[in-house]
Write a structure and sequence with these properties.
2 domains; 4-stranded mixed β-sheet; Rossmann fold; 10 helices; alpha/beta
């Protein structure tokens, strides 16, 4: 009996290795590999198709099949133990972006389309919600990312800008020295309130996100966030420092899964 379960179970014979060793090869990108060309021609004739494409692995073949029928973010139906669902590195996974500003979503879609990026973009119509209407019932996200508004008011944002101009040795200006829309730069309560709201809302999606994360601009915000996390059934949280030149920042990450469960989930996905 010959076991054809996978290329790691089925061992090539000496004759097969000899053929591989002496096979004529070339650049397949330019169609110059005679062995690949011969194999594709044989396969297409054998199965009565116009053409065939050689794939170096089953994972690659499955992903190509999905992408031929679906766009990034589309749903497909398969068995709960299907290989392309449980074991292929999340090849069908996607990035999902959201914003409360409809024009920002429109521009982001244009940028993604221009650069050929398959990113799902969703307009969050409820400004007080962060995950609701964005994470669907059957979604599973490896992580969420957030760069929150860090000022508590437009006045505070303007004062911060004036301080930066002064530190740069420049004359203060009435315009902000960084880009962004109002909803990106400030919100009531500043970043402490925004991320606290995010932490509170994350509990509803505890089983659908492995890691929730957010940038934290102000160090003094961390104590507020740690207190908020202590009120929820968080399994683990981390604070990761970052620095570039004189700019020092950090991000906070929290998970409702313990380490063993996270590793098990990742193992099933990979």
């Amino acid at each position: 009996m010959i076991d054809f379960r996978s290329d790691t179970v089925t061992k090539p014979s000496k004759a097969m290795r000899d053929v591989m060793y002496s096979a004529p090869v070339g650049d397949d990108v330019y169609g110059d590999d005679p062995s690949v060309n011969q194999l594709e021609a044989y396969a297409s004739e054998r199965f009565s198709f116009e053409a065939a494409l050689y794939c170096s692995s089953g994972t690659q073949a499955n992903l190509l099949a999905l992408m031929a029928h679906c766009e990034r973010g589309d749903e497909y139906i398969c068995g709960q133990n299907a290989h392309n669902y449980k074991f292929e590195g999340g090849g069908a996974a996607v990035f999902t972006g959201s914003d409360i500003d409809a024009n920002s979503i429109k521009i982001a879609k244009q940028i993604a389309q221009f650069n050929g990026l398959k990113i799902t973009l969703k307009h969050q119509k409820n400004a007080s919600s962060i995950f609701e209407n964005i994470i669907n019932q059957k979604d599973l996200f490896h992580l969420t990312l957030c760069n929150p508004p860090f000022h508590a008011s437009a006045e505070e944002a303007n004062k911060g800008s004036q301080r930066k101009w002064k530190n740069l040795g420049k004359s203060p200006k009435n315009t902000l020295n960084f880009g962004g829309q109002n909803n990106e730069l400030w919100c009531e309560g500043g970043e402490a309130q925004f991320i606290s709201n995010m932490i509170a809302q994350s509990e509803q999606f505890a089983e659908q996100v492995i890691w929730f994360t957010s940038l934290v601009s102000k160090k003094e915000t961390l104590k507020v966030l740690e207190n908020k996390l202590s009120t929820l059934p968080i399994a683990e949280y981390k604070i990761i420092d970052m620095a570039q030149g004189q700019k020092v920042s950090r991000f906070i990450a929290w998970s409702y899964f313990d380490k063993a469960t996270r590793e098990q989930i990742f193992e099933e996905l990979v």
